[in-house]
């Protein structure tokens, strides 16, 4: 570099630099505008590729239903005792469901349980429900059952069912919303019906088993309470027969103590007798445990893939990426001196590579600027 070049470089004033930046921006914008054919071609190509890709994806249809539990307050009150009974009986799945924070959590846990999944997988439906598997008579066959290894097929079916069914609950309104997503609208509707039916049946069986267990527990406690009541009555009777006149303070104190024992035993017996009658009613009643707000619907529109959204988004993003690449390639300065700043050299290399790639793409799509 000569002294004249150094003097010329240092002689430029700072006020010239904003003008140079504005010129570069203007040139970059003009370059983007001139390359509109290339940007449109890139966007169109990506849009076509995306359209072909989403066409080969398997369609999914979603059937939804919602319900609200009945007698939420009674279940919340009885949950601690029922939880203890379930744990004592070794019903781990029921105990985990009862361990939720609310009634809706209980049903959400049931929907995610293996017991319900197996029931839905093995529940029969009419042949032809699934167009892809017209011979299938249950959901396990649709998921691909292996007749030589039933246990392995059932495990895989339970896993697939967990991905198919989604349950959400509102802690305020206690409304439970369930969605079933499968390949066909008829299949999704039928499986949603089966899931609702099996959920009601499973919950009824759980309530019945817990009611029977609670009845047995209360019956045993009632026997023991009755024996304690008879013993307290007998003790007070013997004391009064032995001491017809209470002449001493010690005798009066003993009579008061026996009377209090009798009153406590009588109160406990009356409380257990009421619980016994209620437990007998709970063990024999067969009432629906929830109210269906929205029954399962047969979907008319697919839930996946959203083809229009996917193609539109891909076209827009491809256009933005192409315009941004051209803009940056035009904005970065080129290298004029071999011993220049390394950062400037990297920028120049990037600009050159970007220009080469754009030129190659224009050659492939047959569009020249």
Average pLDDT metric = 79
Judging from the principal axes of the Cα atoms, what is the shape?
Answer: elongated
Architecture (CATH level 2) name of the largest domain: 2-Layer Sandwich
User: Helical residue percent?
Assistant: 55-70%
Order of helices and strands: HHHEHHHHHHEEHHEHH
Number of separate structural domains: 2
Main-sheet strand order equals: 2-3-1-4
Largest sheet: 4 strands, antiparallel
The protein's oligomeric status is single chain
Given helix and strand content, the structural type is alpha+beta
Number of DSSP helical runs: 13
Number of strands: 4
Would you summarize the structure shown here?
This protein is α+β, with helices and mostly antiparallel strands.
Architecture overview:
- With 369 residues, the protein is an alpha+beta fold.
- It is built from 13 helices and four strands.
- The chain folds into two domains: 24-57 and 306-365, no CATH class; 61-294, Bacterial polysaccharide co-polymerase-like.
- A hairpin with a 6-residue loop joins strand 2 (165-169) and strand 3.
- The longest helix has 58 residues, at 185-242.
- Mean pLDDT is 79; it is low at 6-16, 72-77, 97-101 and 334-343.
Summarize the SSE layout with pairings.
Layout: H1 3-11, H2 16-34, H3 36-56, E1 61-69, H4 72-88, H5 92-98, H6 103-111, H7 114-122, H8 139-142, H9 150-164, E2 165-169, E3 176-182, H10 185-242, H11 249-284, E4 290-294, H12 307-331, H13 342-365
Helix pairs in contact: 2-12, 3-12, 4-5, 5-6, 7-9, 7-10, 10-11, 12-13
């Amino acid at each position: 570099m000569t002294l004249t070049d150094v003097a010329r470089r240092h002689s430029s004033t700072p006020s010239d630099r904003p003008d140079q930046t504005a010129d570069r921006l203007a040139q970059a914008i003009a370059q983007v505008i001139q390359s509109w054919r290339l940007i449109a071609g890139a966007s169109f190509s990506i849009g076509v590729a995306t359209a072909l890709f989403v066409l080969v994806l398997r369609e999914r249809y979603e059937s939804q239903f919602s319900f609200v539990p009945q007698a939420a307050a009674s279940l919340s009150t009885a949950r601690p005792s029922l939880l203890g009974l379930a744990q004592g009986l070794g019903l781990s799945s029921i105990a985990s469901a009862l361990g939720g924070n609310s009634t809706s959590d209980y049903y959400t846990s049931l929907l995610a349980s293996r017991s319900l999944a197996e029931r839905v997988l093995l529940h029969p439906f009419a042949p032809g429900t699934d167009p892809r598997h017209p011979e299938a008579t249950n959901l396990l066959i649709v998921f691909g059952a292996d007749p030589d290894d039933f246990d392995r097929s059932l495990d895989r079916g339970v896993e697939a069912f967990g991905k198919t069914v989604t349950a959400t609950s509102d802690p305020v309104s206690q409304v439970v919303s369930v969605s079933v997503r499968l390949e066909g609208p008829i299949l999704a509707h039928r499986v949603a019906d089966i899931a609702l039916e099996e959920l009601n049946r499973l919950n009824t069986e759980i309530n019945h088993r817990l009611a029977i267990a609670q009845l047995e527990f209360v019956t045993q406690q009632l026997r023991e309470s009755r024996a304690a009541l008879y013993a307290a009555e007998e003790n007070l009777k013997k004391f009064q027969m032995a001491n017809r006149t209470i002449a001493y303070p010690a005798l009066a104190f003993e009579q008061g103590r026996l009377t209090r024992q009798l009153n406590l035993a009588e109160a406990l017996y009356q409380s257990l007798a009421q619980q016994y009658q209620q437990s007998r009613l709970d063990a024999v009643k067969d009432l629906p445990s929830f109210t269906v707000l929205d029954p399962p619907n047969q979907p008319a529109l697919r839930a996946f893939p959203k083809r229009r959204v996917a193609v539109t988004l891909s076209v827009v993003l491809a256009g933005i990426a192409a315009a941004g690449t051209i803009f940056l390639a035009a904005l970065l300065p080129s290298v004029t001196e071999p011993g220049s700043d390394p950062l400037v050299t990297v920028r120049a290399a990037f600009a050159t590579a970007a220009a080469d790639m754009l030129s190659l793409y224009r050659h492939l799509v047959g569009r020249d600027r």
